[in-house]
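U., I forgot to send this yesterday:
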Amino acid sequence: MPDCLYHFTAEHLARKIKQEGITKGGIPKFDANNRRFVGIERGWIWLTTDPDWNQEWCAERILIPYDRAAVRFTVEIPDSSRHMLYIARELLTAEFPNTVWLLDLPGSHAWRLYRGKIFRRWLTAVEVKPLVEIYA
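Result:
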């Protein structure tokens, strides 16, 4: 597993994460036909090995009117807790088969899932997405 991981979030959630660590997260659950959302398996934190600000999985703003990748936290999980870190592709395929369609989303090869809380002391950096020029 890589040493450096990242957690992207919306700007309005960043302050609480800086104060408390990453405490909320989950894996969406779907019915047997993968068509109907039926809940969330709580306690799983989504991370990625990809530091790129252009996180395509969260580019869609139709349902959520804010940038879910506006803030990037660098996360360093200590060796003593690495046993709770999973490669998303392996975990979803084995334990959450009704979510495997998520693996078709861009960037899924870099996803990791951590079971539990990401403590504040594990957050080694926080950055806000740089503004881009919209007129060239």
